[in-house]
C-alpha cells in the first residue's frame, strides 16, 4: 500500500529521478520553456518552484551566497544557477508565487502519452501582463473587506448631527 506517498516516481529509481528533474529544471531555466510529458511537467513544477523562490530572498551578502549554494546543490549546473539569479530572479521578484505554467498539448502519436509545455510565466510576452506591470510590486489582499471611505464619511456626520440634536 502507498498510504501518504504523494511523490510521483515517474517509473524510475531515486537517483535516476533526481537526475531527470535536475536536467529538466536546468533546461527550463535556460530555455524558459520546454515540452515534455504531463507527468514530468507536474513533477518538475514541484521541484523547480522552491528553487525559484530562493532567488527572491536576498537580504544580505551571506544570504545571497547561501541561496546560491542551496540552488547549486539541487541543480549541479553553474550556467543555470547564474541564469536563475541574474535573469529570472529579478524579473519574478514582485510575483508572490506560481512561477510556472503548464499547457497541455495533446497526445504523442508513438505511445499515446500526454504532452505538455511547461514555461516560466513572466517570460511569455503573449500571455503575460507586459514588462511595465511586471515591475510593480504585487498588491496585498485582505480576507475581510474594510468599509469604503465614502460610506464612512457620509455615516459619520449623520451620527454626530443626531447626537447634537439629542443633546440640545
What keyword list fits this structure?
3-stranded antiparallel sheet, 6 helices, 168 residues, 50s Ribosomal Protein L17, Chain: A, 3 strands, 53% helix, single chain, mainly alpha, globular
Listing every helix as H and every strand as E from the N terminus to the C terminus, the arrangement reads: HEHHHEEHH
Order of strands across the main sheet: 1-3-2
Radius of gyration: 24 Å
Estimated share of beta-strand residues? 5-15%
Q: What overall form do the CA principal axes indicate? A: globular
Structural class: mainly alpha
CATH overall fold name: 50s Ribosomal Protein L17, Chain: A
Compute the number of structural domains. Answer: 1
Can you give the mean pLDDT?
A: 84
Please identify the top-level CATH class: Alpha Beta
Q: Which CATH architecture would you pick?
A: Alpha-Beta Complex
**CATH homology group:** Ribosomal protein L17
Low-pLDDT runs of 5+ residues are none
- Total of DSSP H or I helical runs spanning 4+ residues: 6
- Determine the fraction of residues in helical runs and give it as a percent range: 40-55%
Through-space gap between termini: 80 Å
- β-strand number: 3
Main beta-sheet strand count, sense and barrel state: 3 strands, antiparallel
